[in-house]
Specification:
The structure is a homodimer of 370-residue chains.
Chain A (H helix, E strand, L loop, with lengths): L9 E9 L3 H13 L6 E6 L4 H7 L5 H10 L2 E6 L13 H8 L4 E7 L13 E7 L9 E5 L6 E10 H23 L13 E6 L7 H14 L9 E6 H10 L6 E4 L1 H14 L9 E3 L4 E3 L18 H13 L3 H17 L13 H10 L2
Parallel strand pairs in A: 1-2, 1-3, 3-12, 5-10, 8-9, 8-10
Antiparallel strand pairs in A: 4-5, 4-11, 6-7, 11-12
Helix pairs in contact in A: 1-9, 1-11, 5-6, 7-8, 9-10, 10-11
The complex binds 3-isopropylmalic acid (2 copies).
Chain lengths: 370, 370
């Protein structure tokens, strides 16, 4: 629920840059928040997490970090985490754990075209992907056995889909569809990309997973059916996850809000990021009822870390998403507007977008346009 | 193992057009097989399967069909199956069941650019996706409970990854990488799309699924490591499934052979199909040690069924794949060549590729070029 708060409340924000370029883009996002002329005051708390922290201390996510976030913070910004491709004893991704610990049940990922970007795709898009963030295969309930007959290994993972989790993330999707529509209505018609009724596309694979994805599909559909009046203005459609990837590539302009179980959402949002030219511009917010954590969709990018050339846009937009979901819509729009200006002028861009500017220069440019 | 058979053996091929456009494209593929001037003789057996058959008889896959295929056929061609988006009591996809019954453990999906196709993608590609075809979430081991505390439903699915299945499909990937290379070597260098060492890309998500995808990853890597000499000429790399979709959209030219667990393979192959302009040109073969079943990747397309405008290319190429995997490489290349000629001339194309020709006209054009 997005309302514009007018009180100059102080927000305590945990900063978890974690690994690699997280350490460059989170400070950039922090500077943008600090430079806002209206809205809340900020108090920042620096917190440890990540693979490098694990290598130093044996813990990827210290209990202290969790406690701070839970007991003292209104929100957080997470950078990026390195994950070794091979199994490292005792290591488990802190971002997945944080989503669970803080019950951040929806991962909200807006993806929209960057006109200046060189991309293999020639079509424009402006979609909001809402990914269920707590269950599916991400519950990490796995085990391995040895087949006594053959001596060969067999591994199992549990995929969980609950009515409870599907319903709340479904409600988020329909609510966000209405919110997007009301923000669109505030723009002149010529500037609106989406010209249809708001639309929620439910992604599933219930032709194979009739029980789990069947429950997902029915529950999300139920959100609209049981609130027929409230959501009368929102169209509902469905796509099998394989067809979704196909259609997203061929007609990305056909999607407004897309809601998906955890793993499908993970895959789809990377696909959508490719369509706009760079993961470096795609933000996300991990949203719960009492906490929001902004997180750029990109990874820790060890190959470019420490060079001051990482694109800070995804992190800055994640800070704006954080504001938006904490109720500061006006300030969020200010940040989005400043970023959009820099991207559309296309003179100050990092290398991922074909430019030659640094992380600091792009950040400065955004600050100037605030 | 692809060897060129010289004996004019008779192959008994089961035809399962199933639903929708399957009934138009399978006869097209049959005509192409019948028109080959060399290679095996064919005997075709018409077999029932599909959603429409289920609606008439209560069975989507009659035992008789399975028995015929198992006991009398050398291979089969499957059309496409309609799946209702909602659960229909007693109905379950016959294609998934056939893969299991016949132990067709690899789904081989070559995807390559169609120069004439209008696609939002500007990059060329020529990759072979090998999808594990028997396990992962496709084992359909699911159940639903009611949480006694909340009265809400919770559903569970099992994901199975075995060393046995991972190893045989991994071996298929490395072998196909060598086969592709040897076919490339027979072409003049200027006509070879892939100019690097043969490459196998292993898709996984072991940063989250460390046990199941960990086992998958290690086992497929092990295929190369344990046959170091045999596969010395093949490079091996890995991609997380989300990054895979990202990279595939941005640099599809970077992939040669891609091997993936069942669900990831399903999603990736639809994505790759989008990149070449139409699902209507992408074939597959379900390959086991003793049986091969060709199957176009597209669905039953009820919207265009019965209009004689479905693209027969995917089915015709699937027939060629069938030949290839039954050992008739020369005849397979003949069919591929005829199809490629029609596509590159680009005067006789179905509507999915921007043309105005019919299924029959495209089929005739292929026959003329055989
Ligand atoms: C790092 C990884 C565990 C994570 C995920 O799969 O959720 C990432 O891919 C993301 O999308 O945030
Ligand atoms: C129809 C469906 C069960 C099938 C699958 O998911 O395997 C299809 O999408 C495919 O790719 O062959």
């Amino acid at each position: 629920t997005l309302t514009t708060s007018t009180s100059a409340k102080t927000l305590k924000i945990g900063l978890l840059p974690a690994d690699g370029i997280g350490r460059e883009v989170i400070p950039a996002a922090q500077r943008v928040l600090e430079s806002l002329s209206s809205g809340p005051k900020f108090e920042f708390v620096h917190l440890d997490a990540g693979f490098e922290h694990f290598q130093k201390t044996g813990t990827a996510l210290p209990q202290e970090t969790i406690d701070h976030l839970k007991n003292e913070c209104n929100g957080a910004l997470f950078g990026a985490v390195s994950s070794p491709s091979h199994k490292v004893a005792g290591y488990s991704s802190p971002i997945v754990a944080l989503r669970k610990h803080l019950d951040l049940y929806a991962n909200v990922r807006p993806v929209s075209s960057v006109k200046s970007a060189s991309t293999p795709n020639q079509k424009e898009l402006d979609m909001l992907i809402i990914r269920e963030n707590t269950e599916c295969l991400y519950i990490k309930s796995e085990r391995q056995e040895v087949d006594p007959k053959t001596g060969l290994k067999v591994a199992w993972a549990d995929r969980k889909i609950s009515e409870y989790a599907s319903k709340r993330v479904g409600a988020m999707a329909f609510n966000m569809a209405l919110t997007r529509e009301s923000l669109r209505q505030q723009k002149p018609e010529s500037e609106r990309f989406w010209k249809h009724k708001p639309r929620v596309t439910i992604v599933h694979k219930s032709n194979v997973l009739s029980v789990t994805d069947g429950l997902w599909r029915e529950t999300v559909r139920g959100v609209k059916e049981q609130n027929a009046e409230k959501y009368a203005g929102v169209d509902m459609e469905e796509q099998l996850v394989d067809s979704m990837v196909y259609r997203m590539f061929r007609e990305p302009e056909a999607f407004d809000v897309v809601v998906a179980p955890n793993l499908y959402g993970d895959i789809i949002s990377d696909g959508a990021a490719a369509l706009v030219g760079s993961l470096g511009v795609v933000p996300s917010a991990n949203v719960g009822d009492n906490f929001v954590m902004g997180e750029p969709v990109h990874g820790s990018a060890p190959d470019i870390a420490g060079k001051n050339i990482a694109n800070p846009v995804a992190a800055i937009r994640s800070a704006a998403l954080l504001l938006e979901h904490l109720g500061y819509t006006k300030e969020a729009l200010q940040v989005y507007g400043a970023v959009d200006k820099v991207l559309s002028e296309a003179t100050i861009l990092t290398p991922d977008l074909g430019g030659k500017s640094t992380t600091s220069e792009v950040t400065e440019a955004v600050l100037k346009n605030l």
